[in-house]
Design brief:
320 residues, alpha/beta, D-Maltodextrin-Binding Protein, domain 2, five-stranded mixed β-sheet, 12 strands, 33% helix
Length: 320
């Protein structure tokens, strides 16, 4: 099985993920499509009667580390309680009402009711992403007959389906699988690998296709993979959580972040730094918004989502 480096940030002040997830799980047990590109952005203010720390969920892959570093090691320690399930589980916890906010696969915004997005904060790419790849031994992607999809993936699974259906004009068989590349390729022509393991496996005779690069090749746009989504029921409690400032602090601590992750991810320091500073973007500018809209439109066209709801962005004021 491929290496999984989601737990390298040490959760100094919080219970282990498995314990916290267990506590959360135990304690908290169709509209018409919109064709226009409409986004709403509102500002929310803190609730002065905040009796309990907000519960957040976010996977601790390297590409999400700058977004959560401040909450774990930085100036925002003790302002939230954070757990680190896989991305798909983060979305489930938000939908179940077990957490107030989660870093979710962007496609899940269309599937989870009554949530909003944090403005200008994401895990995305304007070119290559490196950590979301299609692996195959087939020279021509149009000849791929079956694709194994990482079971922890949501956004990337939808993206690869869109690439095949919309741009390659073929539909292979889709097989959901545990993220074990050797087993995935044993019975399938191609495999979707995500996260830190996508950057570290032996290439050998494999063809490795970067999915963000392929998306840009066909659309000319960037791609948003993950976003902070918040429950509309908890907006006042989350008003004091400044996700954008947390991102900025994390980006100022890239060297500190790398000092943790490079112990476990077998890549040179300069490659990991280039990945965080050049391959990944943590801002949602207009071209990224356009890419997100097109992704939602195509997901709806190919029946990967039941509706399109316009992104509703919120801007917490924070505590300062």
């Amino acid at each position: 099985m491929g290496l999984n480096h989601r737990v390298l940030i040490k959760w100094r002040h919080y219970p282990p993920t498995s314990l916290l997830a267990g506590i959360l799980d135990a304690a908290l047990a169709s509209t018409r499509p919109v064709n226009k590109s409409i986004t709403a952005e509102i500002t929310i203010s803190p609730d002065s009667n905040q009796a309990q720390l907000p519960l957040l969920a976010a996977s601790s892959y390297l590409n999400s580390a700058p977004l959560i570093w401040s909450f774990v090691h930085g100036s925002r320690q003790g302002t939230v309680t954070l757990s680190d399930p896989v991305p798909a589980r983060c979305a489930e916890l938000l939908e179940e009402g077990a957490v107030a906010a989660a870093l979710i696969p962007v496609i899940e915004y269309q599937r989870i009711p009554d949530v909003s997005l944090i403005a200008d904060v994401c895990v995305g790419s304007k070119g290559k992403v490196r950590s979301v790849v299609l692996v195959t031994r087939v020279p021509d992607l149009r000849e791929v007959r079956s694709v194994a999809l990482d079971e922890s993936s949501r956004t990337s699974a939808a993206l690869i389906k869109i690439i095949f259906l919309e741009f390659l004009r073929v539909e292979p068989k889709w097989v959901t699988s545990a993220p074990d590349m050797q087993l995935m390729l044993k019975d399938n022509d191609a495999a979707l690998i995500i996260g830190d393991p996508a950057m570290t496996f032996a290439r050998d005779d494999l063809r490795v296709v970067d999915m963000a690069s392929l998306w840009r090749e066909y659309t000319g746009l960037g791609f948003v993979f993950a976003v902070w989504a918040v429950s509309n029921q908890d907006l006042s409690r989350l008003a004091g959580v400044d996700f954008a400032a947390a991102r900025d602090e994390g980006l100022e601590q890239i060297e500190e972040i790398l000092s943790h992750y490079e112990r476990e991810i077998p890549l040179p320091h300069n490659e990991l730094k280039d990945y965080l500073t050049n391959d990944i973007t943590f801002h949602i500018d207009q071209p990224m918004k356009q890419g997100m809209k097109l992704y939602f439109d195509l997901a709806y066209k190919h029946r990967l989502i039941e509706q399109i709801k316009p992104p509703r962005f919120i801007v917490p004021r924070g505590n300062g």
